[in-house]
Design brief:
alpha/beta; Jelly Rolls; TIM Barrel; 3 domains; globular
Length: 583
């Protein structure tokens, strides 16, 4: 039997992920286009003469919930089509068509007229379709996705799933929606908390400079102009933290355009503690990040969570276990996922999805055992010989940072992981810092350290971890470890099991997990370790090292005991002894 989540079992095709998809730039005008579309596959770029059936958008055709169960092969095209009529009075001057994400390259047609295109499977794009609108409208989307047959960003997707690599997906996998705006409208918003100055800086983006803008936070009102930063005083503000995730509502006006938003006042940094040890700081104080690796895969939706409630479940499940951070691993989530982290209080480390050509074991695997690092200017060795691939990566990286810039919970950017398509990591870290100097950067997670970024990043699975300070004075983080596996019958897929240590039952898993933290992580945190990222949140396909089963039905650890261990870790890692907490 196919493995399904409880949310996938009860999905309503008439209201699939209906929530407003962009919580920090929200308007009253909203028309969701999720639901049943027609689809077809083709070998060439010409539209097929007839469609093959129905697909439930925004689930990819490879997923169970799409109703298709068919893979888009390299060289093929996937076609979507649906009709829509705008509600009476909907059009205020311009109509915008939004795609949360389409993997990989999309060309969009409205009423047989091409209205735009986008390449990059992890970032949103918007098209002004006003000129092509009719009373009755036919929307068509053509998609191409070569997955691992090309250099494009793909994350964990592969045409041959197994081990740590998972089923490839393609096409529309986030919400599609329409909204209407006046002629002059707010095209974007950048919110920068100035923690030490008790203020927040806003940049309201528009197609024209100098348009008058008004921003309101409670009773505080500030005036500014489009495309020029201006400030709102936040004297006496309440800081945001995972323990107290306080958010401020923000209202913005520009001419006839109105948007609702929110922000939180927090500061991420690397500083020295009272003993002179470099550590991760939150709001001016040492703050240990105890997290899990989060792949963001679902057995029924693949990249797409079956509901908003499903996303919330994962976050709350980890909070119940005492974790305060999720490392979103080589995937970008819908903006609503980050909104839930913001409001519920969960730090996020955001990976950039990896790409490039085929990976060589000597570059991506041997360093785990040997500890040897290489310079990443040997592009061929790292699968980055293709110039167009490097250019596309930088384009997508910039789009990702801009898209997620306002997310309160994101504490760290991670542009590369374990040498997967890594290139010029030190220069890219500097580029990210130029875009956003309010967060820390793990420029080369795991290995192939180029001496840049805010942290010394280490992955270890096969030998005990012992803390050593970084020679360059950066904070030290254990950005992957653990991976202890347990297969629970009826809650796992029928694939060959993979993990880094196999446990026979939940009791033996707890004993091993507890010993790992007591013997390795707690002592390291006392000496100077700033973060620990356990592998991983849930099982994924053949990987059985999740704290949750793949269907999210069961937690493998005793919640209260795990939470107590994490509470002790957070105290020790933030400067207390943690000895008053019992397991």
């Amino acid at each position: 039997m196919p493995l399904k989540t409880v949310w996938g079992q009860s999905i309503n095709a008439e209201a699939v992920l209906p929530e407003y998809p962009r919580p920090q730039l929200q308007r009253e005008s909203y028309l969701c286009l999720n639901g049943y579309w027609r689809y077809a596959f083709s070998q060439g770029e010409d539209m097929p003469l007839r469609m093959e059936g129905e697909i439930l958008v925004p689930f990819s055709p490879e997923s169970l919930l799409s109703g298709v169960g068919k893979r888009l092969l390299p060289g093929q095209h996937l076609w979507y089509r649906r009709e829509f009529t705008l509600p009476k009075g909907f059009n205020q001057g311009r109509v915008l068509l939004h795609f949360g994400a389409v993997d990989q390259s999309a060309t969009v047609f409205l009423n047989n007229r091409e209205v735009g295109s986008h390449s990059g499977g992890y970032t949103p794009f918007t098209l002004d379709i006003t000129a092509a609108l009719q009373e009755e409208n036919r929307l068509t989307v053509r998609v191409k996705d070569d997955t691992d047959a090309a250099w494009q960003s793909r994350g964990k997707q592969t045409s041959k799933p197994g081990g740590i690599w998972y089923t490839a997906q393609s096409g529309i996998w986030q919400t599609v929606w329409l909204e209407s705006v006046p002629k002059d409208y707010i095209t974007g918003l950048f919110i920068r908390p100035l923690f030490d100055e008790s203020a927040v800086e806003l940049t309201i983006c528009a197609d024209r400079d100098g348009l008058p803008c008004t921003a309101r936070v409670g009773d505080i009102v500030s005036q500014g102009q489009s495309n020029t930063p201006f400030r709102i005083s936040m004297q006496g503000f309440t800081p945001w933290s995972p323990e107290r995730p306080h958010l401020y509502k923000l209202q913005i006006k520009m001419g006839y355009d109105r948007v609702q938003s929110y922000f939180g006042m927090r500061k991420f940094s690397v500083e020295k503690d009272a003993s002179g040890v470099p550590r991760l700081f939150l709001n001016g104080k040492p703050y240990f990040h105890s997290g899990v690796l989060d792949q963001g895969y679902w057995p029924d939706g693949l990249y797409t969570a079956p509901s908003d409630e499903a996303m919330v479940h994962d976050i709350l499940a980890m909070k119940k276990l005492g974790f305060n951070m999720l490392r979103k691993h080589v995937k970008v989530e819908p903006l609503r996922w980050y909104y839930h982290c913001d409001r519920l209080g969960m730090l996020v480390w955001q990976d950039m999805p990896n790409g490039g050509g085929p990976y060589k074991p000597g570059v991506i695997t041997l360093p785990l055992v040997t500890g040897l690092h290489r310079k990443d200017d040997n592009y061929a060795a790292f699968g980055r010989a293709e110039v167009a691939g490097k250019e596309a990566y930088l384009q997508e990286l910039g789009e990702m940072v801009a898209n997620l810039y306002n997310c309160v919970s994101i504490a760290m950017w991670v542009p590369f992981n374990e040498g997967w398509g890594q290139f010029d990591a030190a220069e890219i870290a500097r580029r990210i810092h130029d875009w956003d100097d309010s967060r820390t950067i793990d420029h080369a997670s795991g290995w192939h350290d180029q001496g840049a970024g805010s942290v010394k990043s280490i992955h270890t699975y096969f030998k005990p971890y012992r803390y050593r300070p970084d020679k360059l004075g950066r904070a030290v983080i254990l950005s992957e470890f653990g991976g202890y596996g347990l297969t629970l019958a009826d809650h796992a897929m029928e694939q060959k099991s993979f993990c880094y240590k196999t446990c026979k039952d939940q009791e033996s898993l707890w004993d091993a997990w507890r010993a790992l933290y007591e013997k390795q992580i707690l002592p390291a945190a006392k000496k100077g370790l700033s973060a620990a990222v356990y592998t991983q949140l849930s099982d994924v396909e053949g990987e059985r090292n999740g704290l949750l089963t793949y269907d999210r039905a069961l937690c493998k650890l005793p919640e209260e005991k795990a939470a107590a261990m994490n509470a002790r870790l957070l105290q020790i890692g933030s400067g207390s002894d943690g000895e008053n907490i019992t397991l």
